[in-house]
Specification:
mainly alpha
Length: 78
C-alpha cells in the first residue's frame, strides 16, 4: 500500500491546523504549555516511526508559536 505524503508547506500546515481532522491541535497546545513552563535548559526528543509526522508536527509547532506571537503583538496595541 502506498502512503500519502503531505509536504509541510505553510499552506498545508495552516489548512491542517484549521481543519484539525486528526485532533492534533490539542497536542500543539499542550506541547506549547510544556515549553512555556521549562526552566533552564532542557532536551526534548520526539520519537516515532518514519513517516509518522514528526517533522510535520515540528513545522506545525513553529507555525503555531509564530501565529500566537503575532496575536500577542496585536493584543496589546492601541
Amino acid at each position: 500500500m502506498k502512503k500519502a505524503v503531505l509536504l509541510s508547506t505553510e499552506e498545508n500546515l495552516l489548512q491542517t491546523m484549521n481543519e484539525d481532522l486528526l485532533d492534533r491541535n490539542k497536542d500543539l497546545k499542550n506541547f506549547c504549555r510544556l515549553l512555556q513552563h521549562q526552566q533552564g535548559m532542557s532536551s526534548i526528543a520526539i520519537d516515532g516511526r518514519w513517516g509518522s509526522g514528526k517533522t510535520f508536527f515540528c513545522e506545525a509547532m513553529c507555525s503555531f508559536v509564530k501565529f500566537n506571537e503575532f496575536i500577542e503583538l496585536f493584543k496589546y496595541r492601541d
